[in-house]
Lactaldehyde reductase
Amino acid sequence: MAFALNLPKLSYSGVGAVDDAIATLSQQSVKRALVVTDKNLVELGILDHLFELLDQTSIDYVLFDQVTPNPTATLVRQGLSVYVESDCDCFIAVGGGSPVDCAKAIRVVAANSGDIVDYDGVGKVKNAGDFFIAINTTAGTAAEMTSNSVITDESRQVKMVIIDAKQIPDIAVNDPLLMVNLPAHVTAATGMDALTHAVEAYVTPGAHTLTKPTALEAIKLIAQWLPIAVEDGKNIEAREQLANAQFLAGMAFNSAGLGLVHAMAHQPGATHNLPHGVCNAILLPQVSAFNAVQCPERFCDIAKVMGGDVNGLTPAQGAELAITLIQNLSQRVGIPKGFSTFGITEKDCHDWIEKVQADPCLGGNPRQPTNEEIESLYLACL
């Protein structure tokens, strides 16, 4: 089978990207957009310019601002009702991964049938749905340009990972002006999320000549610019470089795949509603050490682009350096050291094992773990 590189039809990046995206939308045959976002962004005025642009182009819109972190199946059903009852014919998602994933899921059910839980897994979406613009306000998830959506099914206490290229938005937007007010702790968490995307995409067996360079460049940019953006959120260059980095990471993992970090991170996110980027950051060093046994050369490459001196080191030593550099970066940007900070117990870790084994991200890991190894990794991250 040939390698598939899935991307949005169009991506706008840089200052003024929102204006260009709405100008393109105005050329489509659309009348009413469902704007999917969260109340906090509305209250902060992040969407004010978007609303002005929609008014100027005579595109009507309905606001669905109920999205919470780790969006749920119930939230998707509520958004679908608003979309149908308001007779909308396009989507505009504004925010980080949560609003974008929620909009993706609403669009899936609107264009097909049944309930969002029917689409848990890979390749189950038949119809792409109405025109969709995803406007990113963080630099982490790359949800604006990927084929994945992650929705919590409250009834099972599990994060569904819906994977299908038909979920990719028509237009991806990254405007650094929308990111300058992002709090430092959110900048840190989303940046480490992007780093995890890039690392997992680089070491997975699914990595390809078309994805490995973008993964490495993303790692390099994040190592350089994430501390700067955390320390000075109004640094436009840092914001833009991080937006570019997370997009590059998305280009890599969207086609190469992810791995054990994400399979494990989805579980505390589902049961304890923890920030996804924080979960990834806590797990990344331990899982990297586990994977480095299988592919030390890849981790040696990672150490090099993060600024490490690998001259004279064996691949195993280079891998150890990469893990140290990842830990140092996580510590510098203020990521909590372990899950016990959030009240997670050994019993929680044990209860997650089967769900990790069932997570679709696990298949992309370079080394397949046993149940005992998964539990051991969780316990090392407490």
Remarks:
- The chain has two domains: 10-178, 184-380.
- The longest helix spans residues 236-256.
